[in-house]
Each structure stands twice: as C-alpha cells, then as structure tokens.
Amino acid sequence: MNPGSLLNTLSGDEPNLGDVWVWYEFQRALVGEETSRVLAALGAGTGPTQSRYLGKTREELEADFAFQVNELGSAAAMLMLASAEAAMRVDFVERVGQKKKDPVSRRLREIHRRRKERIRLEEDILDTWVSKAAEPDVKAAVSAFKGVLSYRNWLAHGRYWKPKLGRPAGYDPVDVFDVCRQLLTATAYKAV
User: Fold this and answer.
1) Among 82, 108, 128, 155, which one is most buried in terms of CB atoms within 10 A?
2) How far is CA 121 from CA 22, 24, 89, 125, 142, in A?
3) Counting beta carbons within 10 angstroms of the beta carbon of residue 177, is it exposed (0 to 12), middle (13 to 18) or buried (19 or more)?
C-alpha cells in the first residue's frame, strides 16, 4: 500500500484514553450508588425490590457488587489498552503517510515497506520507539506498557490460565491508565 494512501485507512473512531477514563469513573460511580442504595434498603428492613437482589444476604450482595466492580475494572482496562494501541497505530500510519524525517518515522517507513499491512505492535512499533527515540523516558514507558500487554492478553483470551503479569500485584484500572498515559505522553501522541 502506498504510504500516502495509508492515511485513508484511518476510521477516526478510535477511543480517546481520557474519554475511556471518564466512562470508567462514571460507571464506577453508578455501581457505587446502586451498592449504597441496595444495602441501605436492606439495612432499613425494607430490602431491595429488584428480583436480582431478592433473597440474598448482605454478604452475598456485597460479593455481587464487588464482582461488578472487578469486572468493570477489567473491561475498562481492556478499553484503555485498546485506546493506547489505537493511538500508537494511528501515529504509525501518520508517520509513514506524512513521510516525517525523524529517526522513529524513518524506521517505521522501513518496516512498512517490508511488512506492509502486517505491522506488529510490540516488535515493530514499540521496539522502534525504544531503539530510535532520543528521549530517555520513552524506554521506561514502552517497557511498562509491554508489561501490561500480558494482562491485556490474559483478559482478551478468557483468563483461563494463571497470568505472569508485569508486576506481582497485577493491575487495576488506575495502573493501566497511568501506564497508557505514560506511553502516549513519552511518545508525544497528540490525543493524551
């Protein structure tokens, strides 16, 4: 594919990392409000009226809401990671299509000529940033992002194995947001 026409492949529909974070906070607040409402009704002796809550003890309800929060966190993490990957791929397309002259762009164009449409996030895009970027914070940001990709793969493939994550305690949505923001800031992506 001609590097100039590569720009025409962009949909413009990629999620913005900040928007995903705002969505997560909004959803998290809704779960928190529902938790408070249901537990308050239970404590007042009236009990919740929705069928999904009927007959459950306080402990069961608390466990149900904790599950909702955890699943929401996993979904938000996936969206944040997808957003960061999309940003890096859009940046790739723009650098190749606009024929920028910096070392990162030159290397990405070489990769595009060789691999065409089979561009790999880690080996092609992220490794290029590590090897060609002059900014010292890029290597740390890329390393942290690569660490969280194992979490993304674990989530995306159904969580059926014991993951070997980039950090012993795993990742929560705040961790994932911070890692993604660090990557996009270090690579000077415009939509952070």
Assistant:
1) 108
2) 26, 25, 8, 5, 11
3) buried
Give dist(CA 10, CA 89) in Å, integer: 10
Alpha-carbon dihedral sign for residues 121, 123, 126, 129: negative
CB-based contacts of 161: which residues, under 8 Å, 6+ apart? 154
Left, alpha or beta for 158 (phi > 0: left; psi -120 to 50: alpha)?
left
C-alpha of 123 from chain center: 18
Residues 119, 99: Cα–Cα separation, whole Å: 17
pTM: 0.88
CA proximity to 186, closest of 144, 148, 137, 147: 137
Neighbours of 69 (CB within 10 A): 15
pLDDT in tens, 2-61: 555 666 666 777 889 999 999 999 999 999 999 999 999 998 888 778 899 989 999 999
Tens-place pLDDT, residues 120-144: 999 999 999 999 987 889 999 999 9
